[in-house]
Amino acid sequence: MGKTELLYSDPIAAAVVAAEEIAKKTGIASHDVALVMGSGWVSAVDALGAPVFECNAEEIEGFLPPAVEGHSGKIRSYEIDANGKKMRALVFLGRTHLYEGKGIEPVVHGVRTAVKAGCKVIILTNACGGINTAYKVGQPVLIRDHISLTAVSPLSGATFVDLTDLYSKRIREIVKKEDSSLQEGVYVHWRGPTYETPAEILMMRTMGADLVGMSTVPEAIAAHALGAEVLGISLVTNAAAGVTGEKLNHEEVIAAGKAAADRMGSLLKGVIPKLL
Ligand code: HPA
């Protein structure tokens, strides 16, 4: 079990300590970009080659052990060639979710740590249900905007942060140049751990949502509030509840992620060197 007292009493200080620990363990003073790999996305990082460093996340200040199958709870560092220049990517395999009931601080600790470790761009990946009936299972969708249905913010106090360009338009354009078939959608953050009811999916569609999942939104807000640019990519792993009449299960989510891993990996590999 990692140390979490500081995480709850002073989460930003905990992120600074965690970033210092990562710099010390990796021998890399500053990283450039961070990736958070969601359910089913873990094998997509194989496209980045061999990591130069790996540790269990809970060895680092403030990180909890993983709670979900398919989330392996590792932190890795990769060296990426960006047209002859060296880029450093910090990769989180797995994340903490709001539905785990540990509060909001562990949910956003990874991205805060990444920003404190120097990352200017945070790539958030996830598995989601497709609300938009035009979406197919296995299709990646860029998050253009979100609707938070959890009413939980990672920020407290009079921090009135603007979210109009939360999912950076600049970066979405770079990604669409890499893969012009990519569509954009509005992601709903659902607390879980239950999947939605068909009636809730109908409500979300009526509100203008395309995708639904149990992550990403608090991390995007926390990263943006600290000044990082955010890219969110959802992989549609199933049609949302009520769309096909099929029941939803976590195994199908993981399997759809695995099936799309190669495509997602080459997308990430192509995009990362163009980000900074
Ligand atoms: N709903 C919520 N979260 C999800 C889903 C879903 O249908 N699929 C994968 N994560």
UniProtKB/TrEMBL annotation:
The taxonomy runs:
unclassified sequences, metagenomes, ecological metagenomes
A single GO molecular-function term is: purine-nucleoside phosphorylase activity
Where does the Nucleoside phosphorylase domain lie? 34-272
Indicate the enzyme's highest-level EC class: transferase
A Pfam family: PNP_UDP_1
Keyword Transferase included in the entry's annotation: yes
Q: What pathway is this protein a component of? A: Purine metabolism; purine nucleoside salvage
In terms of Gene3D superfamilies, this protein maps to:
Nucleoside phosphorylase domain (3.40.50.1580)
* SUPFAM superfamilies assigned to the protein according to its UniProt record, in alphabetical order: Purine and uridine phosphorylases
**Which EC number applies?**
2.4.2.1
Example GO biological process term? Answer: nucleoside metabolic process
**Protein family (similarity comment):** Belongs to the PNP/MTAP phosphorylase family.
A Gene Ontology cellular-component term: cytoplasm
Q: Does the keyword rRNA-binding apply?
A: no
Annotated keywords: Glycosyltransferase, Transferase
Q: Which organism is it from?
A: freshwater metagenome
Q: What is this protein called?
A: purine-nucleoside phosphorylase
